[in-house]
Amino acid sequence: MKRRQFTQTLFSTVVASASVAALSGCGFKMRGSFNYPFKSIYTTFVLGSTLGNEFKRVLGADSQVNLITDAAQADKAQVVLDVLNDQREKVVVGVTAAGQVREFELRVRLKFKLRTQDGREIIPETELLIQRDISFTETAALAKENEEALLYRDMQSDMVQQLLRRLAAVKSI
Question: Exposed, middle or buried by CB within 10 Å (0-12, 13-18, 19+), for 5?
Answer without folding.
Answer: exposed
